[in-house]
Amino acid sequence: MSFLQILSDIIGWTYFAAWSISFYPQIYENWKLKNVNGLSVDYVGLNITGYICLCIYSTAGYLDQSLEVGTIHPEDLAFAYHGLLCTIIIIGQMIFYPLGDNKLSIYIIAVLVFLWTLTPIYFLLTQTFDVFHVSVSYNAYRMIGYDKLLISFIKYIPQVYWNYKRKKTLGWNIWVSLLDITGGLLSVLQTIMDQFIQDVNNEINPVKFALGLLTIGFDSILIFQHYFLYPPKKETQVMDYVTMKDNGIDDI
């Protein structure tokens, strides 16, 4: 194994750790506040579909390299399933904790219905049947990967808007974005490094590369909102929270 390959593996598992850990501050934040009103329901609704797509895309590409979806590392596969599990946990929190006026918008419902309708139809139309097995075109798996890209592009917008609407980021744990942007930077770096390693498929993984860039871009906006547009005022936030709880108001 070459030095570049070892370095790529180290970077890959580091990005896996950063992206995976990024889920837990929000899970803890929801548990601490016993309230999920700081986290956009639209964001989570898109996230669950996105991670289902990423699991299918990564599993197919990892098990069958002839699909030509680019290099899929074990850590890519591990991250996809870990992200799906954490999103399911957050959905569970949304079921048990108050949402306030936070709800799934009609626009996001339309996007989800469109994706959950179009993708299965495309899968059926691209299947090749014979007596012994069913073969699915690699374009179908690529479409699922592009579904994940579309969702990732859309999913951050509700959270950015939710922060803007409330003029605060209380309830959104900033460590989510700090760890997320770290994982995005490392993911992009590993994807670029893979192109210089001779013993792997030189075709770039377009979904992984674009996901990294999208993550960097939107997390930069969220970080800017937190530290510059709506800087946290701890004393005021704690007072507001205690006052609202005393008055029986869960929407913070």
UniProtKB/TrEMBL annotation:
- One matching Pfam family is PQ-loop
User: What keywords were assigned to this record?
Assistant: Membrane, Repeat, Transmembrane, Transmembrane helix, Transport
Keyword ATP-binding in the entry? The reply is no
Membrane topology is:
Multi-pass membrane protein
Respond yes or no to whether keyword Cytoplasm is given for this record.
no
Main location (coarse class): membrane
Which stretches are transmembrane?
6-24, 36-59, 79-97, 104-125, 140-158, 170-189, 209-230
Location in the cell reads: Endomembrane system
Q: Which GO terms describe its biological process?
A: L-cystine transport
Q: Name one GO cellular component term.
A: vacuolar membrane
What molecular functions are annotated in GO for this chain? L-cystine transmembrane transporter activity
**InterPro entries given in the database record:** LC_transporter, PQ-loop_rpt
State the protein's name. Cystinosin
